[in-house]
TrEMBL record:
TM region(s), chain numbering: 12-36, 42-61, 82-103, 109-132, 153-170, 182-202, 235-255, 267-286, 378-395, 407-426
Protein name: Na+/melibiose symporter
Taxonomic classification: Bacteria, Bacillati, Actinomycetota, Actinomycetes, Kitasatosporales
An MF annotation (GO) of this entry: symporter activity
Swiss-Prot/TrEMBL keywords: Membrane, Transmembrane, Transmembrane helix
GO terms for cellular component: plasma membrane
Origin superkingdom: Bacteria
Originating organism: Actinacidiphila glaucinigra
Cellular location(s): Cell membrane
GO biological process: carbohydrate transport
PROSITE patterns according to UniProt: MFS
Gene3D superfamilies referenced in this protein's UniProt entry, alphabetically: MFS general substrate transporter like domains
Membrane topology: Multi-pass membrane protein
Domain Major facilitator superfamily (MFS) profile: 229-451
Length: 451
């Protein structure tokens, strides 16, 4: 196992690439469902489908992109050409929030869905190659955590800033034009950050080049799919991704219909993301002292506890609710850091076959992440529809029934608590961490990881 320590001149620009990724994940994740139901008058069940169906394609697209990325690495020695193509995602990002003025309801949902399909394809070109970088490098268990710690801090800061900036730029009582202005501004930031990230990947590859695969070893999706540790880790992460995307999509609704003030959306986002930024370095230390698996399980338990406190609703008082949201943010930091630094551990344990399949591993991983991004808001939209939530257009102030308000409340709290409990059960089946933490995997360990 390599003892190489990565230089800051490579770490910082690599991490900066996550700013663009954070904007793409955050703004649609938090605001797109709300944009559809409360700005474009799309019924909740239709809005949920408009976000779900485009992401179904990611199950196929991301692994396919992963194979292309692996082929690019084998042929050119790097993955950066595909990342550069992915920067075009900025155009799709702007298009999602630039809906023609004569479109409302289902037709508006179709427009957004088409833009989302294009955006997901382009984003995967960047994301899959970017996240394969730790597995491409000649670094060890703890240095992977350090690398992803830098990345995690930056993406969490970008999520925080994007989550606060987006509603501020859109303004109070925004219309479609205000959302378009917001998308143009954040899209420019996204593009600049992604280009810097490509520079960071190039510097990391020069600072710690990985070991080339031995002759005769072939990679591909089957190597990743046969890897038992990877399957378990991905299943748990998929459940976490569904949960976290549900929570993010639900925040504007919880602020407006449970707390009674839509302006509190920014407060909730800040209370969620600020602790995540501050505690990421602490989670890096936890991983070094106790291991990634233990840290992740502890964070998931904290998330469940915080969700149950939020279920008390406005009656609990705003300070307690903000503290509970902060608990979710602390847990979120670990649930981003630990799994992403475990994936290259799994790839390393798979030996040469894993080394040449890093793109396939990350393609499947990001497919799970994208699926979570689609299923989370869809689950919440089902909760809204079941409670009788009524959609509206910009400027309207619809009074929701008690059943709709209850759906807003418990869909944001109890449903995530149940989902995270399932994630804990799945995560406990992952057993590679103890071996990865103490020594380089032996041949027997590699065989066990692939069973």
């Amino acid at each position: 196992m390599s003892n190489v320590r990565l230089p800051l001149r490579a770490l910082v620009p690599f991490a900066a690439g996550s700013v663009g990724m954070g904007i793409w994940v955050t703004v649609p994740g938090i605001f797109l469902l709300y944009f559809l139901t409360d700005i474009l008058a799309v019924p909740p069940h239709v809005a949920g489908l408009a976000l779900l169906l485009p992401n179904v394609a990611d199950i196929v697209v991301h692994p396919w992109v992963g194979r292309i990325s692996d082929a690019g690495l084998a042929g050119r020695g790097h993955r950066r050409r595909l990342m550069l193509a992915g920067c075009v995602v900025v155009l799709a990002f702007v298009a999602m929030f630039t809906v023609p003025s004569d479109l409302h309801g289902t037709t508006a949902a179709i427009w957004v869905a088409v833009a989302l399909v294009a955006g997901n394809l382009l984003y995967s070109c960047y994301q899959v190659s970017y996240l394969a970088t730790p597995a491409d490098l000649g670094i060890g268990y703890h240095e992977r955590t350090r690398l992803m710690g830098y990345r995690n801090v930056v993406i969490t800061v970008s999520v925080l800033l994007a989550g606060v900036a987006a509603p501020a730029v859109a303004g109070d009582d925004p219309g479609v034009g205000d959302y378009t202005r917001m998308a143009l501004l954040l899209g420019a930031v996204m593009l600049a950050a992604m280009l810097v990230g490509i520079t960071g990947v190039a510097r990391l590859n020069r600072a710690a080049p990985g070991t080339a695969a031995e002759p005769g070893h072939r990679g591909g999706l089957l190597v990743a799919l046969r890897d038992r540790q990877f399957r378990v880790l991905t299943a748990s992460y998929l459940t976490v991704a569904i949960t976290m995307n549900l929570v993010l999509a639900a925040m504007p609704y919880f602020a407006e219909y449970v707390l009674g003030r839509s302006a509190l959306t920014s407060v909730l986002i800040a209370a969620f993301m600020a602790p995540a930024v501050l505690t990421t370095p602490l989670w890096v230390l936890v991983a070094r002292r106790f291991g990634k698996q233990r840290g992740l399980l502890a964070a998931q338990a904290v998330f469940v506890a915080g969700s149950l406190v939020l279920a008390l609703g406005a009656e609990a008082g705003l300070p307690l609710l903000i503290a509970a949201v902060a608990m979710l943010g602390v847990a979120f930091a670990a649930m981003q850091l630990m799994p992403l630094s475990m994936v290259p551990d799994v790839i390393a344990a798979a030996g040469p076959a894993g080394t040449v399949s890093a793109g396939s591993y990350t393609g499947l991983w990001t497919a799970a992440e994208a699926t979570g991004g689609a299923v989370g808001p869809y689950v919440y939209s089902i909760c809204l529809a079941a409670g009788g939530f009524v959609a509206s257009t910009a400027g309207e102030h619809t009074t929701q029934s008690s059943g709709a308000v209850a759906a807003v409340r418990y869909g944001f709290t109890l449903v995530p608590a149940v989902l995270m409990t399932i994630a804990i059960v799945l995560q406990r089946r992952y057993t590679l961490d103890k071996r990865a933490n103490t020594a380089a995997p032996s041949a027997d360990a590699r065989e066990e990881a692939l069973r």
